[in-house]
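Sample intake sheet
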Amino acid sequence: MSHATLGRRGRRLLAGALVVALLPAVGCGGGGGNNLPKVSGSVTVDGAPADGCVLIFYPEGSRNASATGTADASGKFTIVTNAKPGIAAGKYKVTANWPDPSKRATAEDLQKGISKDAPDLLGGRYIAPDRSPLTAEVTGSTKELPPFQLTTK
């Protein structure tokens, strides 16, 4: 082997080692999660589970993305940010919209491209961040928020 061949091999090995060393820092873009705390909660209206109620979490005084949660039939929801489970730590103003289930678009409607604006059964009481009395605080150790207890009155 000549000295030039070893030099080329050495450069290739060094370049390969650098790529492997830098991969964790840059990430691969397809794997892991968003590393945000996974937080759930529940919402009731007049004491009953609010199936389909949509909560939006607006960060107070930060540039974090807003997050959402949609209640299931038991009133429970999991918060998602950018379509991934989790929410950044911080204080949030929370809004709520409870679309009338009898007027919501069905899965079949959505497949046909038909959307319906179902009226808010909460009468818009919690719909605007500047008027909603709802707040939440998330820390790195938060797993579940206190229940949101809404009223129609």
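Comment: Residues 3-26 form the longest helix (24 residues). Residues 1-32 have pLDDT under 50 and may be disordered.
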